[in-house]
């Protein structure tokens, strides 16, 4: 039986190239290609693949949020992140979301194929350098602080963030202040930039 793979990648050229590459392997079957996280979630339930290969940054639902949803719903699919983000913070969050593989897009094609086979067998495939870095600098942000900071980075006011998160404006200000304090910066924009750079958002 071939390994059934669902591919989620928002860049059309890259998605097509990756799909073509995977289809060259005799034991792989790419059952669906998706351009965003929400459509990937729908296709996951429709096709019930063995492995989900996903990028991190996608419209609507990020690859990390998609992985967390897979974990929360107990879907029997192994998740592999393939990304340009060589950031330890992203890897830590991916592992927390139950991801079995985390590879960089500049990895050789044969490494990706081997990693997918390894993950399908129940193993893990993590970029070794990133794995070392991931445990050297822990993510200080709580989930609510992260959410508030991400929205602040999109230019939303405290009131707009409060509306989006179903919280009071005062509570949102507290979350933003906590994030600023933990990151040791002067304001929410600096906090957003630093957290993005570290891969904590």
TrEMBL record:
| Record GO terms (molecular function) | DNA binding
Q: Which domain of life is it from?
A: Bacteria
- GO BP terms, alphabetized: phosphorelay signal transduction system; regulation of DNA-templated transcription
| A Pfam family recorded for this sequence | Response_reg
Which protein are we looking at? Response regulator transcription factor
Q: Which Gene3D superfamilies match?
A: 3.40.50.2300, Winged helix-like DNA-binding domain superfamily/Winged helix DNA-binding domain
Q: What InterPro entries does this protein's entry cite?
A: CheY-like_superfamily (IPR011006), Sig_transdc_resp-reg_C-effctor (IPR016032), Sig_transdc_resp-reg_receiver (IPR001789), Tscrpt_reg_LuxR_C (IPR000792), WalR-like (IPR039420), WH-like_DNA-bd_sf (IPR036388)
């Amino acid at each position: 039986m071939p390994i059934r793979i669902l591919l989620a990648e928002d860049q059309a050229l890259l998605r097509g190239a990756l799909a073509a590459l995977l289809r060259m392997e005799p034991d792989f079957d790419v059952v669906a290609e998706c351009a965003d996280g929400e459509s990937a979630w729908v296709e996951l339930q429709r096709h019930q693949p063995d492995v989900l290969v996903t990028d991190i940054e996608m419209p609507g639902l990020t690859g990390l949020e998609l992985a967390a949803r897979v974990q929360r719903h107990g879907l029997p699919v192994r998740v592999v992140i393939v990304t340009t983000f060589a950031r330890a913070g992203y890897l830590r969050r991916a592992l927390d979301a139950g991801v079995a593989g985390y590879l960089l897009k500049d990895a050789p094609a044969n490494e990706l194929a081997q990693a997918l086979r390894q993950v399908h067998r129940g193993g893990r495939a993590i970029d070794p350098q990133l794995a070392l870095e991931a445990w050297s600098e822990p993510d200080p942000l709580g989930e609510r602080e992260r959410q508030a900071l991400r929205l602040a980075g999109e230019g939303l006011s405290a009131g707009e963030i409060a509306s989006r998160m179903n919280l009071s404006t005062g509570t949102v200000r507290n979350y933003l202040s906590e994030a600023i304090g933990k990151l040791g910066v002067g304001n929410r924009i600096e906090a957003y930039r630093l957290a993005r750079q570290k891969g904590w958002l």
